[in-house]
TrEMBL record:
UniProt name for this protein: Glyoxylate reductase/hydroxypyruvate reductase
A matching Pfam family: 2-Hacid_dh
GO molecular function, one term: glyoxylate reductase (NADPH) activity
Gene: LOC108666285
GO terms for cellular component: cytosol
Gene3D superfamilies on file: NAD(P)-binding Rossmann-like Domain
Domain (D-isomer specific 2-hydroxyacid dehydrogenase NAD-binding): residue spans on this chain: 143-312
Entry-linked InterPro entries: D-isomer_2-hydroxyacid_DH, D-isomer_2_OHA_DH_cat_dom, D-isomer_DH_CS, D-isomer_DH_NAD-bd, NAD(P)-bd_dom_sf
Superkingdom of source: Eukaryota
Family: Belongs to the D-isomer specific 2-hydroxyacid dehydrogenase family.
Coiled coil regions in record: none
Amino acid sequence: MEKPKVLITKKDVPQIAIRKLRELCDVDIYEGSYPMPRDQLLARVAGKDGLFCFITDRINTKVLDAAGRSLRVISTMSVGYDHLSLEEMKSRDIKVGYTPDVLTDATAELTLALLLATWRRLLQANAAATGQRCCYRPTLLLQANAELNNGGWGRCVWGPVWMLGKGLSGSTVGIFGLGRTGQAVLKRLAGFNVAKFLYTSTTKKELGGSYPVAEFVSFERLLQESDFVICTAALNEQTRAKFNKDAFAAMKNSAVFINTSRGGLVDQEALVWAIQTGQIRAAGLDVMTPEPLPADHILTTLPNCTLLPHLGTSEERTRAAMAELAADNLLGGLIVGKQMPKRLC
Ligand code: DGY
């Protein structure tokens, strides 16, 4: 019997997934540079039964049309699915798989790392210590580290009010979106002596005793009372550009804003305004618009804005688990007798 034909849109996939797929499918892997160019995607998806894709691939009507009627299963190696035209897939009876749960811990850890780096100004301090005035771009940071080894620290002086950060102890932390990641962040913050946790979510959550107490509040109250606002909500039509000028204007001037969800939740011009005018104190972003952010984007020039290149799930075991789950989803949808472990629709 002929094996199902699948397309993987990127070559750097943990081997476990490729091995599993090769056993039962005829696998076409895009070997070129990242991300797969649109014309290549449209050409190579034609006639495929399954598609293994990533957040960098916009899978819309055009791609589905190019694939044709053979396409039965789409598996994204991500928990987010705002890059997929889900309604269109449903209407064509295409099964869709995604990779929740296996990446929650890694994303929560990264959120904390970003929060710590932002509120204690670690990158800014690193830049100061190494003689760079302000540098967040990876290449500049490498240069900065090189300078540190060459004694760059000698050019700045320790001082009692120099490079002051903002502590979590005694603060109010507000989490926007208390789903899997939000809950994992909440749990990890339990040891930081936070005075009060607030959250805004689609529904009130009944959390077990292993979580610190958190109060379900309106978005307005979350913004007004939080010293740290952490955004971990999914991007959808209800949350798109939720953090707009009004939202930033409602925050404390001392507030620190962290986003590890999707750039689309933030009106980025409003965020730039809020930071430049001192409306809020700092921001830590793992996600932004567009991605990759152009190196000369204004966000890269703001000293109190810590930027990471979408690294929430970039942890060895996590990426292997995501790849394996995505492969299992694809096989589950394609091979008779198998099930999709995590099916969206
Ligand atoms: C996801 O899974 O949606 C992350 O943003 C990327 O791994």
